[in-house]
Amino acid sequence: MNIIDELSWRGLINQQSDEEGLRDLVDSKDISLYCGMDPTGDSMHIGHLLPFMTLERFGKFGHHPYIVIGGATGSIGDPSGKKAERPMQTMDQVNHNVDALSAQANKIFSGFTMVNNYDWTEPIGILDFLRDYGKLFNVNTMLNKEIISSRLEVGISFTEFTYQILQSLDFLTLYRKHNVQLQVGGGDQWGNLTAGLDLIHKAEGQEAKVYALTIPLLLKSDGTKFGKTAGGAVWLDPKKTSPYEFYQFWFNQDDKDVVNLLKKFTFLTKDQIEDLAESVKTAPEKRLAQRTLAEEVTKFVHGEEALKTAEKITEVLFSGEIQELTTEEVAEAFHGVPSAEISADPINLVDLLIATNVDKSKRQAREDIQNGAIRINGEKLTDTTMEIAPKDSFDGKYIVIRRGKKKYFLATVK
């Protein structure tokens, strides 16, 4: 199957500058292509996955992907999709984020060449920039691109206005140095991508074979943007979003969305995905498609061992056998649940429930205990006079409290 057909079947193509030309190009030879990432933070989130997984798909077809880390572009800010100017980062922040993102990308993705656009942008003086590149950009054309026009009412600085030129310079530089012929980006980047094509054609001639391809904005079946939770972004950094939380995010996807997500976020074959789609219709209660999605994406981002830990935590929480978790697994499993600090001294069970905000009054706490609604580290306790010794559980660091069937609380020992 042609890589373009593969992407089309998976719903990964939004816009192409020249569909027939790109198809002929990838049929005739292995090409080099790239996608950029600005260091606006020190971790990618799942919104970054689709473009780079798309590049990895090209790699599996024998092509040569590049990742451009935007040490230069990230220092001025991309106006795309923003209603106001981005806060300007210090160069120390930019460099820290460049290092963090580079390490993260190298860990997750394979077969890439990684470059930093600061390396070729920083040596260019302002006069050279204006004479060699600014002259090739028509302001009227730039103003008509949605990426700029959407900001005209509220205003845009000259700094962010020039972002389009810098990103175009990336494409031109990669074309000249590495024969990169395709840029891949999100749907909101179409204006920047086509500006890069225009620059190359003006600088190198209309016969230059270069192309642009964007990936559609991913929406859930209810029309809302995919990738956000009540707690915010789903990060690829395990310190920001634990592998267990990451696994649960994918496992909890709706039946209406799961097949689409399997196509886009896994490397499973068409036959495998069609079998899973059938299971959604015939046995939705088994959630086989969701489990497979969670397994595949968690393994891809965090590795086999992290997947095993996430699955173990999931199984333990379902069974209620909390004592089977290690101290480290408790920290991962209950990251983000309501928590409170307590001292290492023994504490009465009723007082523990008050100290951790499980209950608001001692009367309510005693009722919950006597009614069998309270479990400490997986064990049901019904004696209101019980003393709890923090040192006896999870290396003296945590006490896990469950009220009812699903409400968990974590006591962290000082």
Automatic annotation (TrEMBL):
Class of enzymatic activity (EC top level): ligase
GO MF, one annotated term: RNA binding
GO CC list: cytosol
Domain (RNA-binding S4): residue spans on this chain: 348-409
Membership in a protein family: Belongs to the class-I aminoacyl-tRNA synthetase family. TyrS type 1 subfamily.
Renumbered ranges of motif 'KMSKS' region: 225-229
Function: Catalyzes the attachment of tyrosine to tRNA(Tyr) in a two-step reaction: tyrosine is first activated by ATP to form Tyr-AMP and then transferred to the acceptor end of tRNA(Tyr).
NCBIfam families xref list: tyrS (TIGR00234)
Motif ('HIGH' region): 39-48
Binding partners and assembly: Homodimer.
Catalysed reaction, written as an equation: tRNA(Tyr) + L-tyrosine + ATP = L-tyrosyl-tRNA(Tyr) + AMP + diphosphate + H(+)
GO annotation (BP), single: tyrosyl-tRNA aminoacylation
Binding site for ATP: K228
Annotated L-tyrosine binding sites: Y34, Y163, Q167
PANTHER family xrefs: TYROSINE--TRNA LIGASE, MITOCHONDRIAL, TYROSYL-TRNA SYNTHETASE
Alphabetic keyword roster: Aminoacyl-tRNA synthetase, ATP-binding, Cytoplasm, Ligase, Nucleotide-binding, Protein biosynthesis, RNA-binding
Localisation per UniProt entry: Cytoplasm
SUPFAM superfamilies reported for this sequence: Alpha-L RNA-binding motif (SSF55174), Nucleotidylyl transferase (SSF52374)
Pfam families according to UniProt: SYY_C-terminal, tRNA-synt_1b
EC number(s) per entry: 6.1.1.1
Name recorded for this polypeptide: Tyrosine--tRNA ligase
